[in-house]
Amino acid sequence: MTNLWPLRFREFADRSLLFADDAGGFFKSDASFLDRYASDGLTSSDKEFLRDSGHSYDKQFDLPWTSFAYRWARRQSKPQDLNYVILVPTLRCNLACGYCQVSRVAETARGFDWSDETLKAVLAFLKTIEGSEIKIEFQGGEPLLRLDLLEAVRDFCRARFSSAQFVVCTNLQHLDEAAWAFLEADDTFISTSLDGDRETHERQRTHDRARTTTFFSNLEAAVARYPEGKISALPTVDVTAPPDFEALLESYEKYGIRSVYLRPINHQGFARKLDQGENALARWNELHADFIDLLIERNHRTGRFMEEYYFSQCLKRVLHFGADNHVDIRNPNFFAADYIVVDHDGRFYPTDEARMLSRIGRIDLSIGDVTSGIDRSKVQTLNSGAFNHFDPDCIHCAYQPFCGTDVVDDISRYGRIDLPRYETSFCGRHLAIFDKVFEVIYRQDEASKASVATWLGIADWDISMLAVHS
Amino acid sequence: MIPLRIKVEANAEQPFVVRLRSFEAMPGTERGACHPHDVCLEAVDANGAEYVGEGGSLRILGIDPSEIDGDVLLVNPQRGTADRIIRSSSPHNTLLVTERCDQLCVMCSQPPKKQHVDLFEHFAIAAMLAPEGATIGISGGEPTLFKDQLLGFLARVMRAREDLHFHVLTNGQHFDDADREAMHALDRSRVVWGVPLYSAEPDVHDEIVGKPGAHEKLLSNLAFLCRVGAQVELRTVLMRPNADGLPRLARFLAASVPFIQTWAIMQLENIGYARQNWSRLFHDSSSNFSPIARGIDFARSRGIDVQLYNFPLCTVPLPYRNLAPSTISDWKRTYLEACRDCRLRNHCGGFFEWHPKEHGYAGLGRAA
Ligand code: SF4
Ligand code: SF4
């Protein structure tokens, strides 16, 4: 007697149906298969197909059963040791981007930097981290305004951990000799915002010619000075005034950055004060999907392959188990596990978004501080909502094994986490991106196949590598 | 070729294990620091070298002592020979547990024999003397025909030497649920089980290994290995009978054996039965890489790590070369005429010493 693992399904625009099981095994079929499946009328060829594709088993502990259990287990994320700390040594900044994502204060403001005591407590906290490897991300404000604090943390970590890496998230506006010298080190990396071509960047960030020129000349100097991989950049996209994507890609490629992580203007921080108009989500999804198509076409045209970072993550997540580097597609998505944020006042936050949300006073999502330690009971409260397994909507969704959760995003938008999933922005974004993933992988044209292969890191991709059953 | 067996003179009845030491090679070492199984270089003359240890003396003939310093020998005094069972300078050391086997593979490189001598006691001593951090191969015949001794040996050595790793080649026919405890007793992060599976089709696999029902048994034991958390390197020797089935095998692995650490696709070794059956078995990967490529792409698209073992680099298309590490052990490696000016040579494992000069690859050296 063959036992079937339960299947969920989703219908696409072309009337084809995607079927997926809990372990992320999937195939495409049609309505008549759905009928047979639902009415207990599977044919022997259905059964043979399902057995071959790992959707059924004969008895507990046999190979198909064991493999299914293994694939399911490997799709779940497990809490990892703390190895990534985001530090905000100052909130002050020398730029005022229209939608600053990090709730900055003016460069001359007082009381928004770590005090001596805070620095001491941060170092004491870092000392308690057990692993031998650490990654530190300096956020702000503009962290280079407090080079002294960055130096102190870096010196400490280099001595304390056998391997330490540092990322400075900077606007690249004011780089004096000391800053260049700090960035010079091989263990130190630069992350910046680059919103597209000059015009878009100026409109969204720098607001005047001189500052734009400074930014681009500093970026160019850094690119010339350092090896590829030292500098990463993120574009922030305003859905009401999207940049020219072709120009954006050109700009990124020029600076040796082939992976572009497209992000909408953040709902949190000061960004939420901006009116993005009705249907920002639908417009974002459309923009993102168009961007993927542009990438595919451009990759094919130029032969120089670029990717959209999050799309590639989701693509791998669909096809592999274990591909959950990005926290949004982790399930469960445990807070204060492998990474944590320390704010300018020494408070801990589970994510940078939680920090910004707390700063605008909507809710306090801090989870302790460097002196008193991590507030585990609060973390547990957050964790109790941080998985999609039992969500009444997700359990019916074919994308559940690939998808994740974002409690903080839900709170920030709706002030609660118990909305019907389909009404949340997180769900809307993920339904759309997984729809796009499945649309693209089942395409047959050369351009799409070549991009999918490159994004997966393999030589050739072809629709014959996907299961279709009729 | 590096000699694995050397001539010795020893005054003893029974086989024994020693490690060779020369103090010139270990400046500052006190003689007192010797292990009871160490013998130390005393004198060298034109014909040989004299070693002395707690149990007596040993004379090594016909090899320069500097080449064998730190080696662990299994000495057979009756025959006047010693096997260098652990060469301190080599990353490829393999203990041959038995020559018996219950399968009879069409390409077996070491056709099985009936007789068996249990050497586990000697192996345990030898493993204890292995260099720091070594990986020791266990092979046969079929080592798990002596499963209890094998698992006991592994547990004992791994407990005593937390730096050692093991790589065990097994046909996977002999595990059962009763072995759970013995398997759990091993530090699973330090043992890799190399298990061959040739095809997703039971008939093809059974035909290759010469044992009806082997496929079915293997699959249920793969499930067992998964459940005990063992690291599995799945090995598929490429041959004409299974080459076209590689894409299907890849799909089978992704669905049903996804827990493997690595899928190793191995080019055929021209020795043993493979030599006899060469023209029937050898698949020229330089002429037709397509089924291999499709198998690799599928497996890797599902996150399975794939490696190509024993493939001359120039027979592998460029996009797949990074998957073909140099795998032929130093002591059995050679290069051919076509390799003379090859720019890939430093990264290429070349050929088995015994590979025929008529190598069979239509595309050999084309990449050079
Ligand atoms: S959040 Fe939406 S897309 Fe994700 S699993 Fe739940 S229902 Fe599906
Ligand atoms: S020609 Fe070069 S790549 Fe080919 S087998 Fe010889 S050394 Fe290797």
Automatic annotation (TrEMBL), chain A:
Cofactor entry: [4Fe-4S] cluster
InterPro entries, per the entry: Aldolase_TIM, Elp3/MiaA/NifB-like_rSAM, rSAM, rSAM_paired_HxsB, rSAM_sf, Sulphatase_maturase_rSAM
UniProt domain Radical SAM core: residue ranges: 77-297
Keywords, alphabetical: Iron, Iron-sulfur, Metal-binding, S-adenosyl-L-methionine
Pfam families reported in the protein's UniProt record: Radical_SAM
Entry's family note: Belongs to the radical SAM superfamily. Anaerobic sulfatase-maturating enzyme family.
Name this protein carries in UniProt: His-Xaa-Ser system radical SAM maturase HxsB
Organism whose genome encodes this protein: Aminobacter ciceronei
Automatic annotation (TrEMBL), chain B:
UniProt cross-references to SUPFAM superfamilies, sorted A to Z: Radical SAM enzymes (SSF102114)
Keywords assigned by UniProt, alphabetized: Iron, Iron-sulfur, Metal-binding, S-adenosyl-L-methionine
Presence of the UniProt keyword Iron in the record: yes
Co-factor requirement: [4Fe-4S] cluster
Transmembrane segments: none
Residue span(s) of domain Radical SAM core: 96-252
Gene3D superfamilies: Aldolase class I
Pfam hit, one: Radical_SAM
Top-rank taxon: Bacteria
CDD domains given in the database record: Radical_SAM (cd01335)
NCBIfam families per record: rSAM_pair_HxsC
Name used for this protein in its record: His-Xaa-Ser system radical SAM maturase HxsC
Origin species: Aminobacter ciceronei
Classification of source organism: Bacteria, Pseudomonadati, Pseudomonadota, Alphaproteobacteria, Hyphomicrobiales
